[in-house]
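Sanity check

After download, print the first record. It should look like this:
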Amino acid sequence: MKKFLLIIFSVALSCANAQERHYSYKTLSFANNLYESVTSDIQGNLYLTSGTHLDFFTPDEKRHLNYSDQTWGNITRVDVGIPSKILVFYRESGTIILLNNELAPISSPLNLFDKSLMTVSLAAMGNPNKIVLYDEANQDLLITDLSLNVLTRTHITFPGEFHPSDMQVIPEHRIALLDTLRGICFFDFFGTFEKEIPVPNIKIMQLEKDGAIYYQNNQIFHYRMPSAKNPLREPAIIFSKPNLKDFDINAGKLYYIDNQGYIFCLSEK
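Expected structure tokens:
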């Protein structure tokens, strides 16, 4: 899961020269693998996935942990919104593993297929005792307990098909789904639609309390929800880079994975 309280760069990066004046740039020395996703927790610890592997690094790069279980296939998603209860989702096998902050399993594997949940495409932690799922075939938003017993099921009634590629949970019990055609759609914890950021072709999102950071057309934008005082807010460009696989912003640092799988860091000087 992406973070909610972000320290956003004070100067938008609109060109290479601006980047060189205000930021240091490096390839992360501890990253020996090629990665597919990056996220970080509220303490700034990094979590990187590659196939069946999950790597953990502290911000000072002095501590490294690794988790891998080839039984379930490749990792689809990692949610670290609750660092003591990390959710690892394997879509192909319909499996969820919960890990502690030492990357050790804290329960038996949870199998969605055993609960007749055959077409779940997205999974995230709702709170320490609940899991949020999206059933793609039925367009249902599900809230379950930690044994995958369904507590609530809400059918999403948007016109046409709805195929979100990412789901995240933010404070105040709000769920966000990213759909390529609609943008970012927000729901409450009962599954009721609340609002949306109607920007198409978003590929990656990172949520914050009053908006989102997203990747669109080779640029990372910071979008804040309109308010009564600022009804015409426009998204600001943070960084321009073609073909990013993933990115994460935390405490003044921008981590990104390029199209080859290498991870880089931009940080404020």
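If your output differs, re-run the checksum step. Summary of this record's structure: The chain has one domain: 16-268.
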